[in-house]
Amino acid sequence: MRIRPYIESMDYIYLERWIENEQVHALWCANLLPFPVTREAFHSFLLKNAKEWADSAYVATEYDGTPTGFFCYSVNPDTNAGFLKFVIVDPKRRGLGYGEKMLRLSLQYAFQITGVTLVRLNVFNENIAARRCYEKIGFVTESLENDVFSYQNKRWSRCHMTITKEQVRGGETCDGKTGK
Fold first, then answer.
1. Is residue 102 within 8 Å of residue 1, measured between CB atoms?
2. pTM of the shown model
3. CA distances (Å), 132 to each of 11, 161, 162, 179, in order?
4. Cα three-residue angle 135-19-92, rounded to 5 degrees
5. Over the stretch 29-70, which tens digit does the pLDDT of each residue have?
6. 48 Cβ neighbours under 8 A, 6+ residues apart
7. Which residue, 100, 50, 69, is CA-closest to 3?
8. 33-58 residues labelled b (16+ CB within 10 A) or e (exposed)
9. Angle (CA) 138 49 150, round 5°
10. Number of CB atoms found within 10 A of residue 129's CB
């Protein structure tokens, strides 16, 4: 697997397919974008986040170039912390280790290339599969905000998770050594 910058003309069609339904959409973007997502709305959103938060969009691909996942990443220069957001994996590849591989590459990029000391992300507590994936790699819950989002008359809570280079578990660590 590789990661590369998101290319609108090549990649949007994959992302659009991966957001299979309204619940996946809500779990993915907390309805910060309208459902269904349109190309124009998505690219306006990416541009806005790039300007406001210095977000960069990335795609994970197979070695043959087939997209398998997407995420955005930014660095807060005041805290030297990275932030992952809008993480999604091709539904045909969920549960097969693709999300874990993509996250490991994103963490390698974060720690080795951007030099951050910590990476943060937020995930809805109700997104059990995503939370388990993050925890398997070594992310820990820093805090939990209860009932912050409403979806179909249900209230979802948000987990604020963090990881340091030293906390990365399993597989290859961010310095290329075998993990715990």
1. yes
2. 0.92
3. 27, 12, 14, 18
4. 65
5. 999 999 999 999 999 999 999 999 999 999 999 999 999 999
6. none
7. 69
8. beeebeeeebeebbeebeeeeebbbb
9. 70
10. 13
